[in-house]
Design a protein that fits this description.
With 230 residues, the chain is an all-alpha fold. α3 packs across α7 and α4 packs across α7. The longest helix has 25 residues. Bound molecules: nickel (II) ion. Nickel (II) ion binds next to α3.
Length: 230
C-alpha cells in the first residue's frame, strides 16, 4: 500500500507532463485545505471521489485531466458564499497553476454543476466529465460509506439517530434540508435511497445498485433491532 502510494507520487513528481504535476500539487493543496473535519466532508471524501472518478473514467471515457481536477476541487468552495467566480479558491488555484483559461472554464463549470445547491434547482451535469464527477460524488453518499457519513453528519448537527414519531419530509431545497432537525434515519428516505436512480452513467448505476441494496439491508436490520426482534 505504502509502496503503491510512493510510486504514484514519484510518477507525478518526476513527470515532465505538466498535467501530472498540476494534479499532484492540487492533491497536496486540497489535503491541507480540508485537514481534519468531523462531519464526513473531510479530505478522505475528496480522495474517494477522486478515486471513483478515475474508475468511472476508465469505463466511460472523457477527458481524464479535467475529471481528476474537478473531482479534487469539487468541495473546496461553498458556492452559496461566493458572489463571483474570482473569489473562489478553486478558480484562484487554477490561475496560480497557470492552467489555460479554456481548461479552467471546463473545470469550474463542472464544479458549479456538481456542487451548486440553490433553492429548488436540480443539479444538471451537462458534459460527460461533469456527469462522471457528479456520479462519483453521489456514490460516496450511499452504501456503507454513505451510512457512516450520514451518522457522522447527523451527530455533528446534534440530530437523533431515529425517532419513531418523526416522519421523513421531502425538502424542496438544500437550505431547508440543512435547517431540518429530522433524525438521521429520515435522511435515507429523503435522499439516500433516491440517489440510485439519479446516476448519469451506466457504470455508476451498477455500483449504486449494489450500495443501495446494502443500505436496504442495513435499514431492515436497524428496524428489527429497534423493535427487539433480532
Ligand atoms: Ni463532495
Amino acid at each position: 500500500m505504502f509502496g503503491l502510494l510512493l510510486s504514484s507520487k514519484i510518477r507525478f513528481m518526476e513527470s515532465n507532463n505538466p498535467e501530472n504535476r498540476w494534479l499532484s500539487a492540487t492533491q497536496e493543496y486540497v489535503r491541507q485545505e480540508f485537514g481534519q473535519e468531523g462531519s464526513g466532508h473531510d479530505w478522505w471524501h475528496i480522495h474517494r471521489v477522486h478515486q471513483m472518478a478515475v474508475r468511472l473514467w476508465k469505463a466511460e471515457g472523457g477527458d481524464r485531466f479535467i475529471i481528476e481536477m474537478a473531482a479534487l476541487l469539487h468541495d473546496l468552495d461553498d458556492w452559496k458564499l461566493c458572489s463571483s467566480i474570482e473569489q473562489q479558491k478553486a478558480s484562484q488555484w487554477l490561475t496560480k497553476l497557470q492552467i489555460s483559461p479554456n481548461k479552467q472554464n471546463q473545470i469550474l463549470e463542472i464544479i458549479e454543476q456538481v456542487s451548486f445547491k440553490g433553492a429548488g434547482t436540480p443539479n444538471i451535469a451537462r458534459s460527460k466529465e461533469a456527469q462522471i464527477v457528479q456520479d462519483a460524488d453521489r456514490l460516496d453518499a450511499i452504501g456503507a460509506i454513505g451510512i457512516a457519513r450520514s451518522f457522522a453528519y447527523g451527530g455533528n448537527k446534534n440530530r437523533l439517530i431515529y425517532h419513531p414519531e418523526s416522519k421523513p419530509e421531502m425538502h424542496t431545497d438544500f437550505s431547508s434540508y440543512q435547517k431540518s432537525k429530522g433524525p438521521t434515519i429520515n435522511h435515507f428516505y429523503e435522499k439516500l435511497l433516491l440517489l440510485k436512480d439519479q446516476m448519469n452513467t451506466s457504470t455508476a448505476r451498477k455500483i449504486a445498485e449494489n450500495r443501495h441494496r446494502f443500505m436496504e439491508l442495513f435499514l431492515a436490520q436497524f428496524f428489527n433491532e429497534w423493535d427487539g426482534k433480532k
